[in-house]
Amino acid sequence: MIQKKQLGGLDYFRIIAAFLVVAIHTSPLASFGMEADFIFTGVIARIAVPSFFMTTGYFLLPQYLFGHSMDRRPLVHSVEKHMLLYVTAIFLYLPVNLYAEQFKEVSIGSFFRMLFVDGTFYHLWYLPAAILGMVIVWLLGSYMPFGILTGMVFVLYMIGLFGDSYYGLTVQFPFLEKMYDMLFSVSSYTRNSLFYAPVFLVMGAEAYSRTNTLTGKKCKRIKHTKHIWNESNNFLIVYAAGFVVSLALMVAEGLVLRRFHLQRHDSMYVMLLPVMFFLFQLLLSIEKTPVKSLRSISTWIYIIHPFCIVLIRGAAKVLHLESLFVENSWIHYLTVCAASGVAGVIGNRVSVHFSAFGGEKQSFAKGRAWIELSRENLVKNVEMLQNCLSPGQQLMPAVKADAYGHGANLIAGELNQMGIQNFCVACVEEGVNLRKNGITGDILILGYTYPKDFPLLRKYRLTQTVVDYAYGRMLNGYGKKMKVHVKIDTGMHRLGERAERDKEICRIFQLKNLEIEGIYTHLCADETRNPEDMAFTKEQARLFHKVTEKVQKRGYFGLKTHLLASYGLINYPELGGDYVRVGIALYGLLSDRKTDMSAFFPVLSLRARITAVKEVFQGESVGYGFTYVAEEDRKIAVLAIGYADGLPRSLSGGNGRVLIHGKSAPVLGRICMDQTIVDVTDISGVKAGGIATIIGKDGNQEITAYELAENTGTITNEILSRMGGRLFRVMV
Ligand SMILES: *Cc1c(COP(=O)(O)O)cnc(C)c1O
Fold it and tell me: What does pTM read for this prediction?
């Protein structure tokens, strides 16, 4: 069911990895023999850095490599974070650089090499490698399918190998040696953003796609593996065994390469790839609560430990303790670990402190009027709706009109997290907006798209509805392949080619540029099972099935069909289809109260800030146009919400109410564009800065969207979808 994996295993391993990196730079086993130290630091500890890359790949890249997200913000954010860290580290090590006179003979070329490839200090190569590596994989991934990308990064790694621990073979061929010499003039090692980082970034992303739902097609297979997963712990044992065996083989590989003096450097091994695969699977399957501070602490250990090495060596020299703290390699290592561990904790505190200063961007969020979305209720509604589906059927939530006023990005983002990969919207702008906010999966546009906007359909991988044959020809005339669903009009007489127009429907299917993935219709009398409604609905369904059968007879198979919306699923589940385009029910409501909806829960609450509380005296009026005149002294409250926010103006004067402190406060006079005045005479303790509830629960009272709809002569759909863009929306 819907539950997030606990990935704390990754966090704990980051600390281990950080101390392994410290080992690489301090040779802890040197006092026990060079061979032992090589096995530890030249082979085993080499799992540390790839694990960092894989974690980055796991969290950052799947949305781009599988989800076709157009939202660059996560990538930009990650790049910025790494850059900030790099700049900080550059300045931190500047004194050491200067003291060691490392900048003495720097040319422009070597300056750039230092900054963008090698790093300004011996361990800092990781940061430019991570930054450029992410960008390289993202760029490649947006131009080629995942399979080809994977092949490519493996080849790059192989090229890297022959400049690293297999270099001894390369120099047998003078031509190759020359090529690599050229390469080494640009980058001191092949362990960089091109030959080293990409393969691990991609492996991390791949690990994500194997354990999470990202595309509708994969959904079933993955559900299945998850199922097996819960059944047994066999996988854990397999991964642990795989890790141990491949690690042993990697040690053997390292020792052989060393024995024959083939290594130019010892970062890359063939066996490192399977080792990392098994290690990562193992870490993913350890169910531990994530600990965010460990991530930051491990990063700081990584950045700061060379500084600690310098300090400890310096201090030991001054105190004449070199024989203990430097020459005994094991004690030296432990001292550096302890010092950088402490520095890591301090570094974490400092960065938390600074981010606390920077994190105030959304302080105005609940300053005025806002919508609170209940994640819990949304999840319950989705589960309830999924229970109504027949086998093989999937939800295609309608998130048009800003998800019925709820906020399309928040809702669709949450649904994405639950593994839902099909959406429908009304128009191309809504589709583009979802893509720009990182929503993955298929997005069907139910309405008409103006031909000038056809390029957007392709750019943002949106699926267009063919609203009739004439429109199909226009789409086809654009001259490029288009993903479409064909709409059939079976009686609503809105969009869709008329069901009886066989010839036209057939011609739509012959249009060369249309990649037809689905066919659908819309029911218009499904709100009840009255004899009249039922007869009409059955006729619509019959016409639709007739069309789909004919289309199949002509050889078009594998089309997705859909005809049910919320009422359809509740009243006529037997009509089937591959998708169900649920809208209003997803949000926990139906259009009116006639159908029992006690199994569903409203997702939206609407609240507003109280901006002033004051008295009005007998005979005084309130608001525009004297529509309310106080018959006796009253206490009133002004709310920061008006009809521009979607509060219907027809709720003015006695027709509407809000809740404050769990009690009803009637609306006084006319609702204004940005403000509303309510009567709080009978409610004690109302103060400016307090909160009024317009839709939702307050104490044991509740105002539903039904109530607003009934008082204004409309349906909940209209009330909700008119919620203004000025409202702030939060998921709680
Ligand atoms: C809006 C819409 C839906 C969703 O309808 P609900 O009644 O809110 O479930 C489904 N299909 C089409 C064509 C729509 O326009």
Answer: 0.72
